[in-house]
Amino acid sequence: MRPIEAFTEICRDEGVDRIFGNPGTTELPLLEAVADTGGPPYILGLHEGAVVAMADGYARASRTCPLVNLHVAAGVANGLIGMLNAARSGTPMVITAGQQDRRHRRQDPMLSGDLVGMASTVVKEATEVEHAADLPQVLRRAFAAARRTPTGPVLVSIPMDLLDSATDVPVPERTPAPIPTAAGGIAAAAAILAAATAPALIAGDGIGREDAVGEFTALAESLGATVYPQPMYDRLNIPGTHPLCAPMLPPVAAGIAERLDGHDVVLIVGARAFRPHHYSPADPIPKTTRVIQLDADPAEPGRNFPVELALTGALRPSLRALVSALDGRVPGARERAATVAAAITADRARLHREAEAASGRTPMDPRAAVHAFATALPADAVIVEEAITAGIHLRGLHRQDRPGSYVHTVGGGLGWGIGAAIGTKMGTDRPVAALLGDGCAAFGLQGLWSAAHHRVPVLFTVMANNEYRTLKDTLDRRDGPARRTGRYPGLDLTEPAIDWQAAGRAFGVATARADDETTLADTVASLGDLDGPLLLEVPVAGHRPPDGPLERPR
């Protein structure tokens, strides 16, 4: 069959049921093939950043490896931020980029470029197809590589003339994925854990990626261990209401060490390093703590700090084997769990009291707004969160238990949340609510058009404080309430402030505004009744410098 026919045939065989893209001239053979064969629907985005983010959300919700279609050098450049996010979050996807016709590449056509070189720093693998006969095998490899641990995005550059070729190409059969197996060293790990007097588990995002939440929870219960979610976790890795689930580890090495101090044994499961945000001159692991690390990726154990025991294997069977090996060997687990749970329950109650005490203000205190959002969510809802300061409050206040309920990215590429929420809803029948900071949402506005065009019922909740609050807070911590000048240059989104309702309407999305906790909660509670997208503007209080006299710059 022709290369373009082989392309569509392999995509169908690999489970591709839609194509996320923004096409150009080099993709015209693909568009023709989709039209001629009644192929998978083409999910159009107005910007490649939104396109890749939609595929990211869809991959996680549907548990599939989607196909993304980008156009030449400019399209790849625009999509790089989404690829970075997908790579950091371990999201599998295959990205095909239309390359210029090879017959005039020597003339340096205006749209050409080194697509592989551009993408190779942010994807798992990148390659360009050189011969028509190679296309089927390269595509098979791309899908296999995207799904193979560590999972992530793979880019394939395909010249336009190659897709148009009449050459007859073979289509290789799909090779089944390897059967996941448990790590070695389980008996040694069980012996160390069974002897621990104050064990702790760190819940990494690999747990959610590998559907191992149940097995991990069983391990925590068998030990009566404190569970710390990894810093800035991007999915649910232990039920949020579980009594052993402590607050998230802070994204600072010194803060992690402080939280782990007093634990004699720590087991790190599925955490791709700790990726601290701010520098601190400290190691994240206390010197007296014994460390075991379990990961499906053999490059992870011991990557950033030494560990006593490194285990490599699929998480579900490994955790199941570890629970079995501990059976009957931790007689004090129940009593230890009760002590741990009492402290965690008291801390949760404190956070809720503080949020409730902050209610009734105008504009809303962000803690009270997030509390109203979190408590009103339907039980089966999915949160897609891209809100820097409000997101920290959310992590302390939301209590979801069902796997797949929380979606975030640790990539740091802003503008992801709108597209990711659209893709998430396309991949699940559960209600979806996005919690977005206004600074983050401003990077991804083009995604709203896709939500309107495809009638995707998502609630886009924009927490609008008209500033980059997290940077002002950080300045305060660095220099003492910005007393150098009393100003925060470049950190205000005012003069003019963004009219979020007007922005939503410009892209065809219905809008509303919540000025109080009751209106916000009522809107969130009716999430399941949406028949199309809704953007909810939520004005919240911004940064307030600490009291005290301001100093003049010297």
Could you name the key traits of this structure?
alpha/beta, Rossmann fold, 3 domains, six-stranded parallel sheet, 17 strands, 40% helix, globular
Total number of strands: 17
CATH topology of the largest domain: Rossmann fold
Largest sheet: 6 strands, parallel
Strand fraction band? 5-15%
Averaged pLDDT? 93
Structural class determined from secondary elements:
alpha/beta
- Total number of domains: 3
CATH class value of the largest domain:
Alpha Beta
Can you tell me the CATH superfamily of the largest domain?
A: Thiamin diphosphate (ThDP)-binding fold, Pyr/PP domains
Measure the end-to-end span: 74 Å
- Share of helix among residues? 25-40%
CATH architecture of the largest domain: 3-Layer(aba) Sandwich
Give the neighbour order of strands across the main sheet: 2-1-3-4-6-5
Q: Please tell me how large the radius of gyration is.
A: 25 Å
